[in-house]
Amino acid sequence: QVCAQLCRRPCYCPWVPPRCPRGSPLVLDGCGCCKICARRLGEPCDFLHVCDQSQGLVCDYSSAPAGAGGTCNFEDDEEGCEVNGRVYRDGEVFQPSCKIQCRCSDGGFNCVPLCQEDVRLPTPDCPHPRRVEIPGKCCPEWICEAQDQHLLRDAPAASPLLPYPCQEWSTAWGACSATCGLGFATRVSNQNRFCRLETQRRLCLLTPCPALPAAFPA
């Protein structure tokens, strides 16, 4: 009866099908007549404007007043999340890119990096480490520059010979190595004339050490 009221025969559809947003495929409307953009999670729907069944969505009329349209939701009322136009089920693990992995949870998602964010310090066998993108690999890797490549990097930071501006970076100073008297604290920083990461040290004195008691004569 609803189909007889809303669906007209024969079909009269636009000559050019609509352009759908990303993640919304072209499907037949509720009358099986014209191609329309499938409605996505949380979007309004009705008999004609159907939801994306490939994502497990149905038109939910439970929270809509009588005679009004519904909202696209999962058939089993399971919460999901939408990322880049694609809907994921609750608990589903996915990778938006090769560098991060995410998990859909309670309508949102949590992500963790898959690439290590380590810092490689200069060593005798690799005095000039540099992190670069490797063709065919997702995560950047550390390489050792050749001698002829780092000559320009040895110039002062203000020199126009540097191929890039020096962006200063450093960690916070660590705890003093001694609880009393002279000690030293360390940090990792590139604030030097070569703009290279290095371990820096400075003296620290928290409190003077108490005087030792005088030795008793034997």
Could you walk me through the main structural features you see in this protein, from its secondary elements to its overall organization?
- The strands form 6 sheets. Strands 3-5-4 form a 3-stranded antiparallel sheet, with no helix packed on it.
- 8% of the residues are buried.
- Strand 11 (129-132) and strand 12 form a beta hairpin.
- The chain has 1 helix and 14 strands; from the N terminus they run H-E-E-E-E-E-E-E-E-E-E-E-E-E-E.
- It is elongated and about 100 Å long.
- It has 218 residues and is mainly β.
- The longest helix has 5 residues, at 2-6.
- Among the domains are: 1-77, Irregular (Omega-AgatoxinV); 81-113, Complement Module, domain 1 (Ribbon).
- The N and C termini lie far apart (115 Å).
- The model is unreliable at 147-162 (pLDDT under 50).
- Helix content is 2%, strand content 30%.
- GO terms for molecular function: heparin binding; integrin binding.
- It is found in: Secreted.
- This is CCN family member 5.
- Its main location: secreted.
- It comes from Cisticola juncidis.
| Strand fraction | 25-35%
Report the strand count: 14
Query: What Rg, in angstroms, do the CA atoms define?
Result: 32 Å
Q: What overall geometry do the principal axes of the alpha carbons give?
A: elongated
Low-confidence stretches: 147-162
N-C termini distance: 115 Å
Function: May play an important role in modulating bone turnover. Promotes the adhesion of osteoblast cells and inhibits the binding of fibrinogen to integrin receptors. In addition, inhibits osteocalcin production.
GO molecular function, one term: integrin binding
Domain VWFC: 79-145
InterPro entries: CCN (IPR050941), Growth_fac_rcpt_cys_sf (IPR009030), IGFBP-like (IPR000867), Insulin_GF-bd_Cys-rich_CS (IPR017891), TSP1_CCN (IPR043973), TSP1_rpt (IPR000884), TSP1_rpt_sf (IPR036383), VWF_dom (IPR001007)
